[in-house]
Amino acid sequence: xxxxxxxxxxxxxxxxxxxxxxxxxxxxxxxxxxxxxxxxxxxxxxxxxxxxxxxxxxxxxxxxxxxxxxxxxxxxxxxxxxxxxxxxxxxxxxxxxxxxxxxxxxxxxxxxxxxxxxxxxxxxxxxxxxxxxxxxxxxxxxxxxxxxxxxxxxxxxxxxxxxxxxxxxxxxxxxxxxxxxxxxxxxxxxxxxxxxxxxxxxxxxxxxxxxxxxxxxxxxxxxxxxxxxxxxxxxxxxxxxxxxxxxxxxxxxxxxxxxxxxxxxxxxxxxxxxxxxxxxxxxxxxxxxxxxxxxxxxxxxxxxxxxxxxxxxxxxxxxxxxxxxxxxxxxxxxxxxxxxxxxxxxxxxxxxxxxxxxxxxxxxxxxxxxxxxxxxxxxxxxxxxxxxxxxxxx
Length: 394
Known about the structure:
Number of helices: 13
Radius of gyration: 20 Å
CATH topology of the largest domain: TIM Barrel
Order of helices and strands: EEEHHHHEHEHEHEHEHEHHEHEEH
Distance between the termini: 31 Å
Shape: globular
Number of domains: 2
Number of strands: 12
Strand order of the largest sheet: 5-6-7-8-9
Helix content: 25-40%
Oligomer: single chain
């Protein structure tokens, strides 16, 4: 079964972007790999902020000579072929995102060929459903606007728990949003720090001791700032402190690990098993969170999970993009014994289902997968084209 073409769709699910603008809002990039037997598979390789979704879309077009004509059954061969094409550029990051989209699409094809869901091809279920944790519960729940005070965060947390969510995540240090892709000194003002600590205190008071509360630091901090914040947060029994410093420095992570008592989670900006191995070997993290649409697709996510299993480290995939990120991660995690929870963005429920023919089956804090072949969904191509924000440069 030969690959005859790869279609790329970069879309704004809310259709509020302007083509070729300087900075897009959240946009999603999907690929459709088509074969000479009429079968096709869907994958996702979304990346934002920073217009990453556009760069990935362009890269796929440039890499088509090494994709078209290859056998769609040979997933591992395709994975290594595209990964190694970037050997002198640096194969982690943008190249692994391209690999991710293709890898997911080829697994979708293999599922359609066999008539089985992808999790069956990976060895079958080890659990009936996927436990999840909720992000963006403070943005869009029952029509409420974004929380602005600690009290509003607490009220929003209670509403999320009432919907069946048992683990919640947020980044309460709003002052640091300006540094999300612009790390400089890694410091926060006393007022900004107090606000974030007060938000966590309000959430904990609102939901009680049995609900999990996770904190995403987005790599915003230097070592002493992170240590100080973590020590202030210790009374609130956080499940983890995520990405405390930028991902480049293992030494910074070790310094924090030696000084704080809150569990650490890292990995959304690490790529392939090679990046995760030293963290596991040196016991620098309690949880890992690779991203299935960035690190190399279903194939690499499974390899990373198996690697972490050998160290008895739980895996909790990063998941803040589109619907195929949810499904690809869920199919992989359905087969993985060391899963903690799969992240999902509850503010995106409507957007998740905008383009696909079967809605994602969330029930409280669980995601259920069907027995439909492959990923279990197809796309409305006309809808994708109507929401397109991508023009391939001439």
